[in-house]
Structures
1.
Amino acid sequence: MDARDATTAATAVDITVAQAPADGAGALPIEEREVVFDCRDVGVTYSGKRALRAVDLEIRANAVTALIGPSGCGKSTFLRCLNRMNDLILGAEVDGEILYHGEELYGAEVDPIEVRKRIGMVFQKPNPFPKSIYDNIAFGPRVLGLKKDLDERVEQTLRRAALWDEVKDRLKDGALGLSGGQQQRLCIARALAVEPDVILMDEPCSALDPISTSAIEDLMADLKTEYTVVIVTHNMQQAARVADMTAFFSVDQGETGARCGVLIEVDRTEKIFTKPANERTEAYVTGRFG
Amino acid sequence: MNAAGQMAASTARGAVRSTLRSQRRRSPVATIFYVYLLLSTLVGLVALAALMFTILRDGLPYLDGMLFQNAPSANPERAGARPAIIASILVSVVLLATALPIAIGTAVYLEEFAPRGNRIVNLIELNIQNLAAVPSIVYGILGLAFLVRGIDLGPVLLAGALILGLQMLPTVIIASREALRAVPDTVRQGGMALGATRWQVVWREVLPAAIPGIATGSILGMSRAIGETAPLLMVGAATFVSFNPGLLTQYTVLPILIYQWIKLPQDMFQGLAAAAIIVLLAILIALNGFAIWMRNRYERKW
Amino acid sequence: MREGLQEELDALRQAVIDEGARTADAVADATRAVVDWSAEAFESAVAGEADVQARYLEIETVIETLIARQAPVAGDLRMVLASLHINRSLERAAHNAARVAHLATPPPRRSLADEAVITDSLRAMGERGAEMIRTAVDAYTRRDPNADKLLATMDELVDREIAKVADVMLGLDQGDAEVRQWATRMVFAARWLERIGDHAVNVGERTVYMVTGESVAPNPAQEA
């Protein structure tokens, strides 16, 4: 598959999203929820150098799945495969198969733009646009042609992101004037504004203080009732707190000394943190090895 | 605390205080360097002040309605700079309409859309740097060969403006690219992650953020173009024009007129030249002021 | 990495091992007190219980601090939780041993054949109990995944012996009040000794949980 994205109009793949019923506490057990991403033997190379290989993973609907592991294990790389952001990196090639609701994400007729409309992303360092709070949220809907009732949409997403009360009187103020935690919640709201199906978060709290982190973790628990959340985190305790499923990635060193990321184990979070099946997982979560 | 304790405490304080005082003597090298920096700044300021003073002293008496209303004349009593002022303004307009969009468009393409590492693209980038250094007279020769004679446009204002535009391109392209590069990549990533096309991201987020830098670069380029004489002389700008010029007529611009007047023997013409210089400076200051205003208006703190 | 945590876990383990040794001693002393009627053994048993009680409180505090500060997970978490249970089991076993010691009385008449049976059973139960405590703690040290089976097997003898005591008790001459009184006390002692065996089995089960993560249903009749 090729690197640079094609902005030519391609037929969007029609996707019907079937979501698990979001009833009160409990809902469906994880193993019975719909598979949103079915990843088979997924790998990534950057300009020929292999960064990730042989990932077999299922991501289930209406759950938070955490990707943990030491630095360089490819968890962020893998995350970027899920919304085809790796397409924007020169020399990046994705192999293997990723099925999104049963459709091939990297199929020939698939338009990455359409993919990203449905699979949103929040980055490690909050990156609001240098505009007003209102314009930040409105950007997505405006470019996607969802111009109706913009004011309501902005208010709704800000409420969803637990930011409305703090900014409702200053929507026209610059977004860069907000605190780090507020900016990150703004980025989450911005992602929500285009009504995605999935939200990907790449270490969303690593640049934030503990109180903002807590607020965003509470938000994740709320978001999963309507969306599917995949989060990369280097903070194991965070994964333990927020995730329903946890996938542990680590680094394999090849014969030539080349380091490559691999998926070691994926299971319910409580299992990973009480009785991990793989000794490498045990070594990592108990902090014996970084 | 008893007396002994107090004494001990104050001795300790004294010891600390003396260590906190500056331990180093101001080294002579640092002083010399500081003086050198000061002098360098002063040189520029003093030269500029002297220039301004001379110009104002000589030109202010001649800065009146006649300057703006009359055409050049052999008689200094009745000479004015009207056609040249109009021509300079027309040239600015042509530059704004042609060279700026082309330059900014090129910068946007090279910075946002061109494939990286591509050999042709690298070649283009390298040559833009070189073109910025080419002497202006060479552009004049180019204009003469292709525009004035080649397509037989003739020695008209449009030809001169186009050539100045060409000369201006590299400067504005380079400045615009810098301005675009200064926009953090996280903005682009954030936009693309929302499902916007690359064009949408550039048009709505990157360009607006880069406007201050682009504006500054553009004004720099235009200021230089307005003050040029050599290439225009090459493409046949006249030296004595008494009618109001149009796009496809003969013309002369302020710098050339100033040059003409300075060569004339009468003292009045010297004064008129100084006055015309003031007008030229005023135009340039206005342009720069506009750029600063644009920059402040769109300034964002990263 | 996490050397601080490792040191704390090792210290906790050693504290439990030491507590286990002291508990086993207390059980042995209590047994000697009740079958040999040794005053010195009685003093030892009572002192032993006090010692184990103090250790119990200390270990509880250590575990509380360890969890709060270190947030152990996976194997470390299981070790800490197992140690918490084992701590309690050992303390209860030592308490039971003290109860046994307090029931020590010489029989009213030394010539009774029944008295010999009862005393022999008690001795067997007590010695087996002390041995089970030591075995259980050893299995904890060695992280033996079969500790539960091992100790369940050892417990069979205890069950047999207490059945013997019950039989003798039932067959006793109803007329002799003094003998009946003594025998009743001995039955209570046997009951406490049986509970000590149960606590040792619990230690074995918790050890298996620590090693494998599998929880066996706790031995019925849990608390003393």
2.
Amino acid sequence: MKLWSLWRKREKELEKEIQHHLQMAAAERGERGASRRDAEAAAKREFGNVELVKEVTRDAWGWRWLEDLCDDARFSVRMLLKNPGFTIVAILSLALGIGATTAMFSVVYGVLVNPYPYVNTDRMVHLTVQETRGNPLFINLNGPQLQQLRQAGSLESVAAMQGWNLTTTEGDLPEDVRAAYLTSNSFIFLGVPTLLGRGLLPSDAPEGQDPENVVVLGYQFWQRHYNGDPDIVGKKIQLVHKSYEIIGVARPRFTWGDGEVYLPLKLTADPTRTYFPMTRLKPGVTRAAANAELQSLLEQFAKQTPSHFPEHFHVTLAGLNDHFVERIGGTLYLLLAAVALLLLIGCGNVSILLLARGTARQHELAVRSAIGAGRSRIVRQLLTEALMLSLGGAAIGVAMANNLVKLIVDWLPEFSFPHEAAISINLPVLFFSVGLALLTGIVFGISPALRSARPDLAQVMQANARKTTAGVRGRRTHSILIAGQIALTLLLLAGAGVAMQGFLGMMRVNLGYDPHNTMSVGIPVHDDTYKTWEARGTYFHQLLLKVNEMPEAVSAGISTNATPPNNGWDERFEISGKPAAEEQRARLNFVSAGYFVVLRIPLLQGRIWYESEAMHGANLALINQTLARQYFPNGGAIGSEIRVPALKGEPPLDLSAAGSDGWFQVVGIVGDARNDGLRNPIMPSVYVPYTIMMPVFTQILVRTNVPPLTVLHAVREQIHTVDPDQQSDRDVRDLDGWIKHEPEWEQEHLVATLFAGFGILALVLAATGLYSVISYTVAQRTGEFGIRMALGAMRKDVLLIVFRSAAMSVVAGVLAGVMLTISLNRVFTRWIEGSSLDALVLAGVILLLVITSGLSCFIPARRASSVDPTVALRYE
Amino acid sequence: MKEGYRNRIELLQGTLDLLILQTLLWSAQHGYGISQAIRANSGDLLQVDAGSLYPALHRLEKQKWICADWKISENNQEVKVYRLTAAGRKQLTRERSRWEQISDAIGGVLNPGKKESAS
């Protein structure tokens, strides 16, 4: 804008200067006696063409390039508006490609490039270890251990967190609030200023005293619970009957630990209380060095509290985003590659259109070059047109991307990306899109521009008399572009086919339980309540009875840690009288007898324990079919004894029945149900009464005779009657909902849907490209067809000619696409797990492509064959 | 037409710049004044047309050899007046000595005998 006003000013000054010149010249002539009119006319004559003088003077300013650019842009817009059909198809082709690419890039940028708002995230590490089977595990430490960790030489600072479910006790029903208790250095550690008020400070939890009753609200909670009240700081909030002063509100991207409220944490010396550590390495310390130092420290800790560590481990610190990169990184890059293909296909389309139009405009360009336009000038003009198209496409594309981004964010697996990530069309993403637009403009614009800028004058002038067939070279370029488009489309469609096949396969998996009309209600127990085994057992039992007596409830059961499809604690177990050659592991589940009724898991052999036995904490167990088959291949499972050595409570949090680490008698075998997700094989499973081990939470499964979520409020009221402070988890879903919450379900759903969408778009684009080429050739060869038909060619002959011209490039494209797909199959199988290309999918894709291509050829071909020879010969 | 103008500028470029700088050496002038001064001082032989003069002026201004001020004339009009800068003064000396070299050289070519006797 500044440049523009400067330009206007200089323009005005030049005008003034020239007018002054003319006046002076006229005045001098007037003094010599000429009449006023003659003097003015003579002065003008002498001066020459005013506009021309202005133009050459402006050249001296060195702004000519800018002026040319504006001229080119204006001219391009005029040319594009004159061909609205062409312009719309071209811009839409680009908008689809650029929009999809922008959306995918903004997800990649948000999740993988810049996910965290915290300071020095590159040096922040999670304290993780690998146990013998290579699985990574987060390690929690107790208070004294944390103090010792702070002394480690490779660490700059250590903070810690503990999560608890609290409730607000203001409404009619207690509302669940996820609280993150943070050590008082945490806000300084994370380094993100608060939105309102202040963060937690060391003075909020003085050494050796109870922490102050202060709270920092999470942004989401502040929005939901207080409607974003700007004057909230200084007010009080009641959490489990305790009053806290609100001292600040966190920023939207501050979501550490997914906390809804942040409270000061006091580390206790109690060895059973563990905390989640957050650590930052000193600058220059490598992870390998830190791993080595921490290994001996953690081994020492493991001796103090063996139940908090795996038996054998080595420390492998993990970067903040490592876990997410591993989970979703490949998928995101795969999708980005897919949209890049889509963009390439769109570019191919515009290239084809421009080439076709370039040939149509050959006459115009030849005339321009004949009257002296330089080759570089014409190339520049055509490139400007291409850039106008791509920038137009980018503008529409970015607008579309905005919606697509929201859709993708909704579909991203909930725990496969950091919740701090700000996934939106932001400045870096916009830069990317504009850069992309310029790049695509050059990519699809350069070849048509170079070709069209080299018109063979003599040939063009001659050809104008009658449109003859295009030169061989032009047709070859078209064929290559079409073949390329078809190959890439085939690749995308095959990818979509593979992804959809994988997803459908997962949907058809035999679950082994009946998820319909059943929901799981999570129940977090408050700190310092129901502290004895008897009290907690009775409490859980009462909750179960209350829910069960509802009229809508068909059946109910307790499933502390056993809600499928991914359930149970992974534990080592022993079988009495059968010394294990290798480590035996099973999923250990704490359930009530009603669990099997609710989920309709069949009892295959033996019996289920009675409620009375459960209330005594009897050492009885059920096993699943897989365990029976694997460890008792010759039968004899029932009556055998198994033992889980690590099954021992840690009061006051985890309460276990006496003798819980002793021998359990197997009383029955139940059918297999999914317990390790939808994709992995079913693991051996052991079910014991929920009273054997009661941590500070449980879940009640309830099967209802109405859609379960409609009675959630009633369930909560029932729970309320047992304990007025007892809330339930905010995130209550039916079991179908939990299946859809599985990361593999969400991931495959995302990939399959997006890939299918991109594949269809690619197909539409390729069909448009083919259609444009054929229509254009047909229009160009109208005269030729007229002659052929006048000489006796039949309609079908003409049809055949048209089809043959397209068939070559389609066949070549399909072949190239098949080869491309097969060679990239490894990529598919790696990133779209549990699926690989099969011949049926490939055949289906090829068929779809061939039919679509045939249809796109048929319409223009029919037009060609219905040409009236007399009209055709007179044509132009 | 446009190309025609440009060619003439190129032909005159070296000399026109020299003439403008020389004209501005003693007093500041507006565009018309410069063209009239060149005309008068060359005995009406050299007529600088506007299509060469103004591009040259604007180019010299861009090179900072001359600079322009807006002044109010007697009949109360804004007038763009050019004057020589310090850099322009130096440039004038350079251009003059180059012009003298060229005219000597051309003189030498046109009158070979004279040159020999002179040396």
